[in-house]
Each structure stands twice: as structure tokens, then as C-alpha cells.
Amino acid sequence: YELEQSKIILQEHGYIVRTLGIPYGDYNNDVKITGTMFYDSIRPSELGLNSFNNLDKYNLKSYWIVNSTSLDEINSRIDEINDNDWLIFMLHHVRKNKNREYTISPMDLEETIRHIKEKGIEIKTISEVLDECYGNRR
Q1: Element (H, E) at 21
Q2: Residue 11 belongs to what H/E stretch?
Q3: What's the mean per-residue pLDDT of the chain?
Q4: Which of 34, 37, 55, 69 has its Cβ near the most Cβ atoms within 10 Å?
Q5: How far apart are the first and last CA of the chain?
């Protein structure tokens, strides 16, 4: 009920809702099965890279950027990516004051984007990547 209704409410407000982010790792097989009925993909709070060779779009891993994450750590994650990998960054806030946990400063975000582009890596949303892999399903 919650997965279906939250999507309906967001769509009624004009949002296109195709992917589901699960907070705090509150994810299990029941959530996965139910989520597949309403969403094109699910990103629980599981740390790691996704491999296009073995992609589970209903269990997408991500790398969390928190207020204590250094640019060196972020760049290191970016440098680990190979042609078959997909790195999803998860954060909530971009602001100078990094008093909230999932925050990056505007300057650090700009540097992260610069480093990604320098490596020749494209920046895309989850939906854009999945459209390339599977086509637009919903």
C-alpha cells in the first residue's frame, strides 16, 4: 500500500516516478517483490558498485556521500570504475553548511563533477541508464 500510494501522490503532484530509493537499509525480499510491481528499479542502502555484466535493477548498490566524506575518497571511488561498472552516488543536500549527514559542499560537488568528466565518464540519472539497458518500460 505504501509503495503504491506514495508513487500515486508524487505523480499527482507532477513528478515522474520510476525508481524507488529505500532509506536506512529497510529492504528485504518482500519489499523487492512488491517494488517490482510499481517501479522500474530499486536502490536500497547497499554499498558498492553495480556491474553491467550482472545487473540487478531491483537491488542497485550505491556509494553514500556524507558530510565527512573527503574528496580523496570520492575520487578514489570514481577511479575504481571500469567499462562494465556503474557507480551511483547517494546524497541528500548540497550546501555550504555540512551539518546534515548526507551533505556535500557546492565546491566539493563541482570538483567531483570535474573529476568525473576528466575521466570521460558520463553523468546520468538512474532512469537514463536503465533506459539504455532495458528501454523505457513504464
Answers
A1: strand 19-21
A2: helix 2-12
A3: 92
A4: 69
A5: 19
Provide the pLDDT for residue 128: 94
Please give the distance of CA 105 from its chain centroid, rounded to a whole number.
18
The two counts, helices (H) then strands (E), for the chain are 5, 8
Report the length, in residues, of the chain: 138
pTM of the predicted model, to two decimals? 0.87
How far is it, in rounded angstroms, from Cα 6 to Cα 27? 17
Dihedral of alpha carbons 28, 33, 36, 39, sign: negative
At 73, phi and psi to the nearest 5? -65, -45
Confidence band (pLDDT; 50, 70, 90) for 136?
low
How far apart, in whole angstroms, are the C-alpha atoms of residue 93 and residue 105? 8
